[in-house]
Amino acid sequence: MPNYRYHIHVIHADNDQSLILDSVAIAFQERAFLTYDVSSKLPKASLYGRQCIEACDYALIIIGDSYGTTQRTGISQMHLSYLSAEAKLKPLLIVIKTHHHVISLEPSLTEFIRTVEKHAKYVYYYDESTYIEPLLVQAHNDIVNNHKIMGSWTKARTQSLPEYESDMQAPRKSSVSTKNQDVRSTTISSATGLSRPIVLTDIFSFQYSAHAYEGGNLTEVTMPMALMWSDILQALIKISPTFSSYGLQSSINRLIAHRAENDVQQLMPKVHAVTRCQMTQNDLNRLQRQLVAANWIELTTFGTRVKQELWKLTFYAKSLSKDQQELDHNL
User: Fold this and answer.
1) Helix (H) or strand (E) holding 304
2) What pLDDT, in 10s, does the model give residues 80-115?
3) Cβ-based burial of 129 (10 A; exposed 0-12, middle 13-18, buried ≥19)
4) 80 and 49 Cβ atoms separated by less than 8 Å
5) Extended beta strands in 238-309, E state
6) In degrees rounded to 5, what are phi and psi of residue 167?
């Protein structure tokens, strides 16, 4: 076996396919470290799932007899995790139970299976008689061979406790060749669901573009800018209770526009108008990932397509804003 393993996050419905999940643990014993979706009854289940997906190398979805417990939005944790994995461009393994006999499946489960089958690349099927471990190994080999990733978890050099702990605290970084897939930090803290806090007085640096009008001519310029996280938080507070990624972009662009005109005038003294100030898409994606990792925003509901995901501010972010306002008032 190689001296590294993959981090695979297992997505599944509550209280479903327990024997299959045990088989997953056995099949991947020497191949991967596993994290699992937790019960949706826990208040941080969605946050934990998203953070595990953010850190993992691959995601494995087990679809059996149940859609899972639904949230107030009518969507199950399994569905939420699937959408999160899709949004993060994680390589997905889909394992679906085949029902040979005529049974009444939940309409939500039937629709979910159709959605997954339509978009998935690696789909494997099993039934009650399937010896599933060889199937899982084959699925694992297929995705590893087609999505080359250096395992981000390393084995301990010895079995002594201090060295074991040292190895586990300093895993190797992933090297991802999949198009549009980000290089991810894969420390143990992120893999176990711990958020990455943001200090309000720190800054977020990025690039933005703008249209500058000078002497009747239009010039598109690209400029650097840095915003304090406290200013970003206050901009988020002003967004509607639920918002799309486009809504987030619009809010940040409005914040940029207040400062961009002065910056552009330093470059072009005769400019008479500055419009269409927009953070670059790569920086916007980076901002959104940091907001999720810091537990400032969370997914709340979805449309029929992944790109229609809706976000909301977390209670934690609102509390930070309130504390900051009280501090400013006292000063």
Assistant:
1) none
2) 899 888 888 889 999 999 887 656 788 889 889 988
3) exposed
4) yes
5) 273-279, 297-301
6) -60, -45
